[in-house]
Amino acid sequence: MGILMANKTQKFLSSIKAHQESKSDEKFRGMLSDYLKLLEEDQSIASLAHKRLYRSINIHGITKLKESDSRCQQIFNGEELKTYNYFQSHFFGMEQSIKKIMRFLHSASLKGEESRQVLLLLGPVGAGKSALVEHMKRALESAPDIYHIEKCPIREEPLHLIPRSLRKEFKETYGLAIEGDLCPVCRHRLLEEYDGDYMSVPVVKSSFSIRGRRGIGVVPPMDPNTQDTSILIGSEDISKLDLYPEDDPRALSLNGAFNVGNRGIVEFVEVFKNEIEFLHTMITATQEKSVPSPGKQAMIYFDGVILSHCNEAEWNKFKSEHTNEAILDRIVRINVPYCLEYTQEEKIYNKLLSISDFDCHIAPHTLEVASMFAVLSRLKPTNKVDSLTKMKIYNGEEIIEKGLIKKVDINDLREEVRDEGMTGVSTRFIMKAIDNALADSDKNIITPISMRDSLIKQVKEQITNEEERKRLLLFLQKTLHEEYLKILEKEITKAFVSAYEEQAESLFNNYLDHAEAYVNATKVKDRITNEEMDPDNSFLVSIEEQIGIKGTARDNFRADITSYMFAKLRRGDVIDWKAYGPLKEAIENKLVASVKEISRIVTKSKSRDNKQQRKYGEMVATLVEDYGYNEDSAEEVIKFAANNLWRDS
Ligand SMILES: Nc1ncnc2c1ncn2[C@@H]1O[C@H](COP(=O)(O)OP(=O)(O)O)[C@@H](O)[C@H]1O
Ligand SMILES: [Mg+2]
């Protein structure tokens, strides 16, 4: 134990050493001439803020969702969607919003109009706006250090030292335009300390830091009574006013958000909670690329990305006021709706759980059911399909109805409604329900059943709008109750049927053999004995009836399947029992039906005999070993199935 600990410490100490060495390596102190030499090698060191931020995200790489990716096919219209690796493992189902943010940054980095606009993320609470901005700020923290004039309170670009009269030549030489002039503090120092010799002003390098307030400034929403622009632009330091003559820049404390965030990011949290007067500085900063100085100094050049966020209620209130039009014109709004793909939503919960201290058993399908509920609550109703179907279509799933793949275009559904995903329950609502479900459990487990109970309780407690409450309860008590039972029935069947996959595969092969023979009016050759026989119509029917195919529809179904599968084979595709949605469903239902009776008996605890008890034990063991349950959760869902699926009739 002692040796082990010592080893750990030793290992960690060497990491510390490496870290310190890498830091000291990066230290730099030089003059403008040194900076110019560096600039000649790498112009990116003088990038403006938007470009720097864009690059610091882009550098992590881009992954294109391939056409072959099913999400791409079903959800993004086969459009080859760019996803940014920097966001991929942290944000889910948000590709469209992220794409828009990156498009904004890209245009802004080319100094387009966007570089003079405020980016506003608009979305409901808990949609991930703050988290997105936080993540973008962190991208700067891992970006290369910036070079700046030593002791400059706003860490300004060393090129500002170059006098106006030389800038034309500078541009011709380096192909780079210099924007902005020295801040009052640097100008003062240049004159007083360096006697106007700008070549001897030291240039240093430092990093971005959220906590160190370097390059990242945050403006929290302010109480109107205490609102003070010093939070934005700094102030005059009263204690120093005695020391220096009036208007001496040395009395300035340039520690406002715009000073701090120069060359990086200024974030406005819940931006429209602030008074309008307060926002003028923000607009000036983008439009004029300068901010007022405290005291009577000239305006100070500002280069930074202004990121703001708010929810819809605040936005609507703000928008409705006529006097705000000028500001509206300077805002690029990007909607950040809730996630509408439930499998992606589930990933959010997994992420949030993985970073908490949460430690308990979560039964299979628990988070799935919760995420289905979240998405259902966010969808607007349509006449084309029921809510559950819409939810599945938005998730990229095939919808099977009466033996056919239902053709509903996801785009038609999307176009029917505007601003979907801006209402409904938030991720926080769900996370709280998860917490409560756990608190109520004496076995330290959460199952879809306790999850649903907890959600029902929370809806009753928190949703005050009568109509909304009814709508949500219906989803929980009916829609998802039934949907979960279907999921559960399949799972229990899988646990019951030994070698489920093989059995399904063999049903599939038999079905194809017989259907093909039936369609072509030929014989079926037994795979083992080579004996020829007529196609077994009653077998075919027993599969087809599982998905409600009757009468003349049978012939069509058999013909369709046969040609579908042979077309696939001709293309060289591998076919298996899951190849065609409707047939897959029929096979699953057939297997479910085949164990219905035994399931019913075995899951009833009262009437089990020894043999059945053994079978029950085997089933629990399979659920635990192969399907991710523990014994408690397996027993709980089996009991639930017994009470709801196979009632004694
Ligand atoms: N689509 C998403 N992907 C990943 N995490 C998300 C997503 N939506 C919300 N979250 C998480 O939910 C939590 C609440 O989000 P937050 O950023 O505070 O929302 P907002 O600022 O929009 O109210 C955060 O921890 C965030 O990481
Ligand atoms: Mg927020």
Kindly describe this structure.
Helix 17 packs parallel to helix 21, helix 22 crosses helix 26 and helix 23 crosses helix 25. The longest helix has about 30 residues. By secondary structure, the protein is α/β, with parallel strands linked by helices. A hairpin with a 6-residue loop joins strand 19 and strand 20. The strands form 8 sheets. The protein has a 5-stranded parallel beta sheet with strand order 7-10-13-4-14. A 3-stranded antiparallel beta sheet has the order 1-6-5. The chain is elongated, with a radius of gyration of 33 Å. The structure holds adenosine-5'-diphosphate (ADP) and magnesium ion.
Write the layout of secondary structure elements.
Elements: H1 2-26, E1 29-30, H2 32-41, H3 49-58, E2 62-65, H4 70-75, E3 81-84, H5 85-88, H6 95-109, E4 118-122, H7 129-141, E5 146-149, H8 164-174, H9 184-192, E6 203-206, E7 216-219, H10 230-233, E8 235-236, H11 238-241, E9 252-253, H12 257-260, E10 265-268, H13 276-287, E11 290-291, E12 300-301, E13 305-310, H14 312-320, H15 325-328, E14 331-335, H16 342-355, E15 361-362, H17 366-378, H18 387-394, E16 400-401, E17 404-405, H19 410-416, H20 427-439, E18 445-446, H21 448-462, H22 466-496, H23 500-520, E19 524-525, E20 532-533, H24 537-544, H25 553-570, H26 581-594, H27 596-603, H28 610-627, H29 631-644
Parallel strand pairs: 4-13, 4-14, 7-10, 10-13, 15-18
Antiparallel strand pairs: 1-6, 2-3, 5-6, 8-9, 11-12, 16-17, 19-20
Helix pairs in contact: 3-6, 16-17, 17-21, 17-22, 20-21, 21-22, 22-26, 22-28, 22-29, 23-24, 23-25, 23-26
Bound molecules: adenosine-5'-diphosphate and magnesium ion.
